[in-house]
Amino acid sequence: MPTLKKRFPKPSDQPVEESSVLRRSLMIGVILAVLLAVAGMAAYLTRPEAPEPQSGGHPQSAASPHSPTPQPRASEAVAAPPRTDDPVTFAKAATKALWTYDTQRFSRSEHLAGLERWMTGEKKYADWKSVSGEVPGKALWSRMHDNHQHATAKVSEGRFPEAFKTALSQDPGGITQAYVYAVTVTGKQSLAWKGSGAGAEPRSTTLAVQCRPDHDCALSGVLPEVAP
């Protein structure tokens, strides 16, 4: 998917960007402490800093007991997150939400607003940039809209990567600061567009999912590479 051109910050943007860098650094440190050798985690260190989400996070997150009411169109654009404390179950549902879109019925901003409802409300563990980066850019979304393109997804498997399970067995207490789990999900995305065009492709992704005790899971981010 094409990415948006980086906006050069104005002087007034600097405090926000510094906060984003600090938040990302904290999140990276916590996940690295647990994942250790998970493939692709080093890429987090060189990715651009993430902008803050426009709205609150997951309604059941420990840090967001009072999230704002979602926009009606946004709630239709993306399915609501499930109420579960199982990271694999949540990751499979989140992956389906990430791979499903309808450019004809909804705008890109509505789709993004719908995805924001899946995010953890703990900002220092929320990598919104990695999630929004899974969505087609503005120009591409516009062309897809003209072609009536939409996508559906079928998830076949969700599991903890082997490196994550090994790291967790070696240091069971390492996860207790943030409770962020790595989950690799596989499945298939099907595309359709006007003129009876259609296609499908197998896909896989690794998500970072936060599941604190006594709280529903929430999305923390999407890893830059799939962890086996």
Total strand segments:
5
Number of domains: 1
Beta-strand content bin: 15-25%
N→C terminal distance: 22 Å
N-to-C order of helices and strands: HHHEHHHEHEEE
Q: What is the approximate shape?
A: globular
Largest beta-sheet characterization:
5 strands, antiparallel
Strand order in the sheet with the most strands? 1-2-3-4-5
Task: Summarize the structure in short.
This protein has 228 residues and is of the alpha+beta class.
Structure description:
- The chain has 228 residues and is an alpha+beta fold.
- The chain has a single domain (15-52, 79-222), classed as Nuclear Transport Factor 2, Chain: A (Roll).
- The protein is 32% helix and 20% strand.
- A five-stranded antiparallel beta sheet has the order 1-2-3-4-5.
- It is globular and about 55 Å long.
- The protein starts with 13 loop residues before the first helix and ends in a 6-residue tail after the last strand.
- Mean pLDDT is 77; it is low at 1-16 and 36-70.
